Amino acid sequence: MAELKGVLLDLDGTLANTEDYNYSYAKGVKTEELIEYKLYEFFKPILKVVTWGEFIELFKQAQKSVKLELKGTAASHNRYLYIQKTLELCGVNFVPDIIQRAVDYYFEVMLKRTELYPGVIEVLKCFKYNQLKTCMITDFTADIQIKKIRKLGIMKYIDYMVTSEEAGSDKPNTDQPILALKKLGLSQDEVVMIGNNPKTDIQMAVAMDIRSFLFDPRKLYPEGGYGETFYLQDFSKIPALLNLPTRKYSRKKMLIIDFVGTLTNERNMIEEVLSTFIHKDPAYVSATYKLFRQGDIGEPEFWYRLGIGEIKKAHKAIAASITIRKSVITVLKRLSQEYDLVLLTDFPGQWGRSIMEERGIANLFSDMIFGNDTTFQKPDRALYKYLLQKYSTVNPENITLIDDNPAALLSGREFLMHTILVGNAKEGQIFVPDAVIEDFIEVEFVLKKREKLNR
After folding, report:
1. What is the DSSP letter of 105?
2. Maximum distance among all Cα pairs of the chain, rounded to whole angstroms
3. Which of 135, 211, 291, 404 fits a disulfide with 422 by CB distance 3.0 to 4.6 angstroms?
4. Could you give the dihedral angle defined by the CA atoms of residues 43, 46, 50 and 52, in that order, rounded to the nearest 10 degrees?
């Protein structure tokens, strides 16, 4: 069996109680608490003599009719169409303004009651802490599902979403998981499906030969009757069944800080540093520097290829070309009182360590990781996985990456790290970080603002 690398998640009735107050699914809920009953009360001044019993029968008839006409599409879930058809059956013709207000009210009532099931947030965090990619696959329109996700506060734990609106068909058609796997870059044997509906979620997973969980919090279905891999009524048991370790973290907060372009005024190692004393084609210098950084050639070979005979003089020339941004040391001193500071840079350690010590910065960092200290280079995803293993007691949600490379920040974001981009992204590098600053001195303001929002 392939290593588990991703999770496909249903939303309604799986992560949250969005179906619990719906007439079609409610179990043991008072009539007055049903969403459809609230809708009936909204229409009462218009419908006048229509009773609740008559209204719900007409609503069910309208829903069935829309689902039949638009079978297998996202539009078959459209509440506007359900309500429009219900009013038509009541003899009330086209009243779009009233219908739209009713739709807005319907979802307002739903969202007020929308809550995650017990254990869901802890399991979602566990997925991300174990570096699993996540994709929500759901039968509905994207706008409504995004509102639910925002209300639930789980956006950062979901990497992708595929709706039946985007895929073009409802479950159990396999269009949604096929598109989800494409987005995740995974195969069907590297993911697991979690859903609450055996006729849609589980049937779809079986058709794709994907391992599956039938989550049945309301005890509606018999265990093992639908081909699911696991049956459960307690969401919190999922990590144990998948052999995922649950982690306990300290309250420590960490800043992982880049060097060149973040702490220095120089942004380009070739153009602004090496080219000041090496007079060769920049493309050749860049290619040779890359080989050195990757460990493909040693430092003596690097300088030999660039026509430099005295390595010590070269080190001094590099140090003379590097200038630290104004106020960096002052800001780092203040930050080090509240955060563990870690330097993470592709800059070679043979040059970097002495520069950091000479500038009085080295002692402010609890750790310094240079380009040749690991086998990874930015923005390699494995580098950030390595960081989480090295600092295993630090919650990734308490780690902030500060870098001038958008691709590096993107890799860190996948592991729940907060991201701050220094300067503007280079052309062709598209990524939306959590914050953008022009100068390192602005980091304190961004961090304080985030701390205030998280209280």
Report:
1. H
2. 98
3. 404
4. 10
Burial class for 74, CB neighbours closer than 10 Å (0-12, 13-18, 19+): buried
**pLDDT at residue 426 in the model:** 61
Residues 6+ apart with CB under 8 A from 216: 196, 231, 232, 233
Q: Which amino acid is at 137?
A: I
The amino acid at 68? L
Amino acid code (one letter) for 177:
P
Tokens matching residue 80: 């506007």
What angle do the packed helices 96-113 and 35-47 form, to 10 degrees?
Answer: 150
- Could you report the per-residue pLDDT of 378-422, keeping only the tens digit for each? 999 899 999 999 999 999 999 999 999 999 999 999 899 999 999
3-state secondary structure of 430: coil
CB burial of residue 143 (10 Å; 0-12, 13-18, 19+): exposed
Distances (CA, A) of 47 to 35, 52, 91, 108: 17, 10, 9, 21
What is the distance of C-alpha 402 from the center of its chain?
Answer: 18
Rounded Cα gap, residues 316 and 351, in angstroms:
9
Beta strand pairing status for 399-403 and 160-163? unpaired
CA distances from 305 to 185, 297, 344, 346, 434 (A): 39, 10, 27, 20, 41
State residue 427's pLDDT score.
55
Of 155, 107, 221, 115, the closest CA to residue 9 belongs to: 155
Alpha-carbon distance of 5 to 381, in angstroms, equals 13
| pLDDT tens digit sequence for 53-82 | 999 999 999 999 999 999 888 888 889 999
Tell me the pLDDT tens digit for each residue of 311-340.
Answer: 999 999 999 999 999 899 999 999 999 999
pTM of the model: 0.83
